[in-house]
């Protein structure tokens, strides 16, 4: 068992000094170092096992990602999956074994399951946001009172969710008869299902009085940025961003774009109402190919964009120009 407050050792590669490297001529030298840390948080899975846990430790760097975590008894308890400040997120050994079994079974790299939606846990939403997605007041209050389900805020066109007729405003209550209480539950059950599998969602809809069962076939996608996301919780966009203008995007690499039947660029997955992007007419599903005449590939090192901006986009196979004007100064 893993508990908060326990000490662990993180083993990973450490930079090699120039003096050491010069003594080895052309040989490859790797030095493994250990860092002592402490478990700060343990996130349980809906099944009762551990989904992941966080370790705080000094001198953490990206070199630690992929490193092994051992407990005081010398047992492997997980592998470092990511970093956030001075905390490392660790996947437990049970999750690693399941992933390895899938790789061995398919004899190839196993992508993450992809649904193609954005959403928020109902329990974390103000009632006004539920109402804004088409729910009548009495049903919205009843839904919020149950503290369960995921409200879909957008659905990517051409995605598995869109093909299954999921819509923004729908609330996913169950995955294969498993109750969904929060965002972590939903992500967990999708990950356990894996790509290229079918899952059954129990869905409540704002325009239907009874719950519906929908079968959804998940696809596999190698770009982790295109997985299921929660707005303001797991930001998807790295580098080039239109967030300040009210639009959230993901970068479509050629292989990913082919899965969606479009070309490479930036796919708009959410547009905040009453923002410059919304007022300019940008829509969910638009694919942005260039900004101010420069292709997206040439702008990836830019971290922020300032209006006015001229966007060349494709919308339902039609090429359009969307202009985000400069924000008037008060």
Tell me briefly what this model is:
The protein has helices spanning 18-23, 93-106, 127-131, 137-146, 160-163, 183-193, 254-259, 276-280, and strands at residues 7-14, 31-44, 50-56, 68-71, 76-84, 87-92, 112-114, 117-121, 150-155, 171-175, 178-179, 198-204, 212-217, 219-221, 247-252, 265-271, 287-291, 294-295, 309-315, 318-324. The chain has 330 residues and is an alpha+beta fold.
Q: Low-confidence stretches at least 5 residues in length (pLDDT < 50)?
A: 222-228, 230-239
Helix % is 10-25%
Give me the side-by-side strand order of the main sheet. Answer: 1-2-3-6-5-4
The proportion of strand residues reads 35-45%
From N to C, what is the helix and strand string? EHEEEEEHEEHHEHEEHEEEEHEHEEEE
How many whole angstroms does the radius of gyration measure?
22 Å
Shape: globular
Count of DSSP H/I helices? 8
How many DSSP E strands?
20
- Determine the structural class based on helices, strands and strand pairing: alpha+beta
If you average the pLDDT, what whole number results?
79
State the major sheet. Answer: 6 strands, antiparallel, barrel
Distance between the termini: 58 Å
